[in-house]
Amino acid sequence: MEERLKQEPSDVVKVVLFGPESTGKTTLAELLARHYNTVWVPEYAREYLQNKWNSEQKVCEPKDLLPIAEGQIRLENELTKKATKVLVCDTDLLETKVYSEAYYVGHCDPLLEEYALKNSYHLYFLTYIDIPWVGDDLRDKPNERERMFAYFKDTLEKYNRNFVILKGNEETRLSTAIEHINNLIDK
Predict the structure, then answer these.
(1) Which SUPFAM superfamilies does the entry link to (predicted)?
(2) How many Å apart are CA 20 and CA 142, to the nearest integer?
(3) Alpha-carbon distance 64 to 45, whole Å?
(4) Collapsed DSSP state (helix, strand, coil) of residue 66
(5) So what's the pLDDT on residue 1?
(6) Which domains are present in the chain?
(7) Dihedral sign from CA coordinates of 142, 132, 37, 180
(8) In a 3-state reduction of DSSP, which class is residue 156?
(9) Rounded Cα distance, 187 and 175, in Å
């Protein structure tokens, strides 16, 4: 089990889009990957949970979190091998940990927590809640955006993660992210 949650070593710069639902993470991941002519790692939970919803009309349960985490790391490890100098991750296990705690009264599977804290990235982009919320089958917290943003920010601070808050429209967010990634590449 542990091996299925472990990152494979790599020399690419890894950045994570991190934050509450419907804050532009996927759009920005796609734009950054295009800009750097690289691949991006989609959020495995969306596919997994959409399939669950479509087939069972059920939402995420605690038993789903480890399979989601395994799928996320599997995708990341596969796509790391295809990345150029940058790998853009639409999410990571730390985000899965945040959602686990937010939805399940502070609970997070110890194995998920271990690898959420052990796996590493060069930079997190914390996406602010200043863009309109868009609903879908999986999003369910339109009235809790401020609380969730604070939870995500507190988590990054608690675990001493290197992060930048992205605010503003798509172009502003993209240019800010590119500036910070370029600084990492140039080091």
Answers:
(1) P-loop containing nucleoside triphosphate hydrolases
(2) 10
(3) 9
(4) helix
(5) 56
(6) 2-186 (3.40.50.300)
(7) negative
(8) helix
(9) 19
